[in-house]
Amino acid sequence: xxKLSSFCLFLTLTLLHRVFTISQIVEATEVALTPPRxxxxxxxxxxxxxxxxxxxxxxxxxxxxRPSGYEYVVVDYLWYRRLVPGAYVDSLGFDVIDAxxxxxxxxxxWPSARDGKGFTEVAKIVHMMGLKFGIHIMRGxxxxxxxxxxxxxxxxxxxAYEESGRKWYAKDIGMKERACKWMxxxxxxxxxxLGAGRAFLRSLYQQYADWGVxxxxxxxxxxxxxxxxxxxVASKFWRExxxxxxxxxxxxxGVTPTMAKEINNxxxxxxxxxxxxxxxxxxxxxxxxxxxxxxxxxxGAKALSGKSWPDLDMLPLGWLTDPGVNHGPYRNCKLSLNxxxxxxxxxxxxxxxxxFGGDMRSIDKSTIRIIAHPVLSEINSxxxxxxxxxxxxxxxxSQIKYKGLNFQTRSLKNVGRSGSxxxxxxxxxxxxxxxxxxxxxxxxxxxxxxxxxxGSKYQAPFCLNKRxxxxxxxxxxxxxxxxxxxxxLFAENTRKLCLSASQNRRLTSKEISRxxxxxxxxxTNQLWSFDENGTLVSSYSGLCASMSKIKDNVxxxxxxxxxxxxxxxxxxxxxxxxxxxxxxxxxxxxxxxxGLPYSNWTISSCGAYEIWRDKYYGIIKKTLSxxxxxxxxxxxxxxCI
Length: 641
Ligand SMILES: *[C@@H]1O[C@H](CO)[C@@H](O)[C@H](O)[C@H]1NC(C)=O
Ligand SMILES: *[C@@H]1O[C@H](CO)[C@@H](O)[C@H](O)[C@H]1NC(C)=O
Ligand SMILES: *[C@@H]1O[C@H](CO)[C@@H](O)[C@H](O)[C@H]1NC(C)=O
What we know:
It is a single chain. The protein is α+β, with helices and mostly antiparallel strands. It has three domains: about 5-380, Aldolase class I (TIM Barrel, Alpha-Beta Barrel), CATH 3.20.20; about 395-410 and about 555-640, Golgi alpha-mannosidase II (Immunoglobulin-like, Sandwich); about 425-545, Trefoil (Acidic Fibroblast Growth Factor, subunit A) (Trefoil), CATH 2.80.10.50. The chain is about 25% helix and about 25% strand. It contains 16 helices and 37 strands. The strands form eleven sheets. It has a nine-stranded mixed sheet with strand order 14-15-13-12-11-3-2-1-18. α7 (about 195-210) packs across α8 and α12 (about 335-350) packs parallel to α14. Mean pLDDT is about 90; it is low at about 1-25 and about 400-420.
């Protein structure tokens, strides 16, 4: 009897355990298990898209791209801005906001948003098509809401947020000195140390959830514009609700794997470059950074309710517009067909999210063939062990030296003398950020100096003069309170120019983010603090300054190769030619296993099929060689024994 009942108990417990395990799996929504794929309005409409244009695009995404896994349709920035004379990407006062200071879609551009419906109707239609709906949001709160000093909604009560016996308003939480650096009139951080600040952010996220949003692209909180506390509030919000929302960060100017490791488990995707446009330099600038993220095992790392993916940005192919303009598509993609294939091949081999940016209403067969290629879809979703493969040799057809594009760099006056050495931002955990010390010289202001030699070893150390945060007039009390121990830094001969952490405009991916001087003003972008471990911390982003070699104006050249393995035991091998002339790239079959995780596999021969040329190269026993056109690539599916 005893035996039987304990057996029953054991059985019941086992079953209960099973049931519990299963229900847990059902409840904890896992998202982004493969790199998310979809369409985004930015490359073809900048900010100007209307409901009609958006839904026309969605219908075509559903028809033409959904079979290839493109499922998110995303409205990019400023959907709340009225498209009227005077409005532009950094205008102030043209946004439609509700009584709680929250952005709502401009009802002229988005008619279904009338009567406070927001994006509910658009999301419904998108869901009926079987697609998922995404929106872009900026950091914190809008300047317009702060100027209007709107009350803050408490989502728990549905009433104005009260704490310490008083109501709280937009002016209490908005941090003007932390305005988004590249959209200075638009948005600023909110103080997440305040209950009211967090309540405001939650009121935004609740609204997006109520609308039925499946994907949030959060802008001006990452890269040089890091606002880690807001990322934490957002991530916590989605996680506590077991939300299936994809949480994406953009852009990623100056991002390194060390910096990304501070956020990658809080999000599902994060940009690792500035904006990618349809220029060869933009495409080429993604090779080294994606190599570094693959080597750091960041691809598909465990993250917010699923996985996270380093994001190389949208695919600007097809029918496009330009950054920052007030109009929609009017021109074709400037990349050659080979360059487009190279972009798609790198993005797939690096397992970047794939977001097509061209106007679907004008898409042509050649673009569809590139972005919906079944082998690339398979590689992007399901290949593993993806990484750069260095064991190749190459011979270019001539030795022309390519003069890189001279994009403008505003480098430091003082540092300019040391040529390729510059200041950049990095994670404060990065050992390379350690190296600052302070010193007093007779009758001189206190200085902050870099300990290493930045130029010739006979040069004096690189130093900047310190000045307290409050010597300029007109600063607010809250500003003083918050930044007591912070200071400005200026070069000896330029007292009016202060060291500034990030740029005034959005950078594209070919540009190098660097620190520069600009006229002094009370913004955290120019405030710094000194940590005892020798780090110099930006008050804007919490990132640290570091002196290092900066390669200016260099368009990457040479050849590259990536390897990965498929679900059916095949090997994918991509060969890229970044040279300005045709180059023959060769790989020895016996070297392939060096790129694979199993070193016990001695490869003797491989059947080689190249997908872009749709050509079978036969059984290769020794060396696979292929002539690759300038900026082009070859992508082989190898079946080896
Ligand atoms: C989220 O899922 C967990 C179990 O995984 C569950 O305990 C919790 O109640 C869920 N929360 C909500 C808001 O559904
Ligand atoms: C320096 O100290 C800060 C805390 O004061 C810490 O967060 C940071 O990781 C340290 N950096 C290094 C490189 O040791
Ligand atoms: C190589 O080793 C792995 C495990 O380490 C094993 O699964 C695989 O079958 C081996 N392959 C060969 C060709 O021996």
